[in-house]
Amino acid sequence: MKLYNMNLSNFATKCRIAIYDKGAKVEIVAIPGNDSKSPEYLKLNPLGKVPTLDADGVVIGESETINEYLEDKFPTPALLPKSPEARARVRSFTRFHDLYLEPPLRALFPQMNPKTRDEKVVNDKLTELNTRLDQLEKMLADGGFATGPDFTLADCALAPTTFFAVNMLGMFGAKPPLEGRPKLAAWWAHVQTRPSVKKALGEMAEALAAMNRGNR
Ligand SMILES: N[C@@H](CCC(=O)N[C@@H](CS)C(=O)NCC(=O)O)C(=O)O
Questions:
Q1: Looking at ligand 1, which atom is closest to the CA of residue 64?
Q2: Closest ligand 1 atom, CA of 66?
Q3: What are 2-46's pLDDT values in tens digits?
């Protein structure tokens, strides 16, 4: 089984966290041609999105679908709780992440260069992101991981995007995302103690540093 990966991708990092947490036998491989739009990669995933899982010949796209598959295939340790209600609650976080929290942050990526930046886009997207972070603050459990004492797929989804928020927002002169959000700050400190998260975010940090060195 292979995960087509880029260490800087928050969606791929979501899957690497689940893989590391489960100790799953999945080979982590680079995108062919290191380009998500290379003809070889598009053959595998016509959307040209990262990550993709090759599950011994069955190709699976979309990070959350991959993580749900990993949960089915490698059930221990469980990253989804047992009761239908608790499972639904975890999934409401992963959907919130994919549909509402991540998109305004992603919209800021092309605006990093102050010389070419569109200030209106930046202001609109920062406002939207702050609304989503306020919503997340209300959703998070009081202490422990995102939904309570157990580490779940909700934490896998939220941690890499929070890494970007913590490391990026300063570039736009925005208020730090943890400021005035005590539950988010406590969750962020706690989730980084999980060895799988520490390892995957360390890889993201290295990739970000390499990209920044390249841009200098
Ligand atoms: N919904 C997809 C989003 C994946 C995604 O947008 N990945 C980024 C890298 S973090 C990507 O492939 N970007 C290239 C593109 O959108 O063309 C998932 O959950 O896997």
A1: 19
A2: 20
A3: 999 999 999 999 999 999 999 999 999 999 989 999 999 999 999
Cβ–ligand 1 contact at 178 (below 6 Å)? no
**Main-chain dihedrals φ then ψ at residue 27, nearest 5 degrees:** -80, 130
CA of 155 from ligand 1 middle (Å) equals 19
Output the residue whose Cα is nearest ligand 1's atom 2.
62
- Between the CA of 213 and the centroid of ligand 1 the distance, in Å, is 23
Q: Is 26 helix (H, G, I), strand (E, B) or coil?
A: coil
How does strand 2-5 pair with strand 27-30?
A: parallel
pLDDT over 80 at 215, yes or no: no
In CATH, 2-73 is 3.20.20.70: no
**Residue ranges of the domains in the chain?**
2-73, 84-215
- pTM, two decimals, is 0.97
Measured CA to CA in angstroms, residue 197 lies from 12, 17, 57, 67, 157 at distances of 13, 6, 28, 14, 11
CATH topology (fold) of 84-215: Glutathione S-transferase Yfyf (Class Pi); Chain A, domain 2 (1.20.1050)
63 pocket-lining for ligand 1 (C-beta < 6 Å): yes
- CA-based nearest residue to 1, from 75, 41, 58, 79: 58
36 Cβ inside 6 Å of ligand 1: yes
Give residue 49 CA to ligand 1 midpoint distance, Å: 4
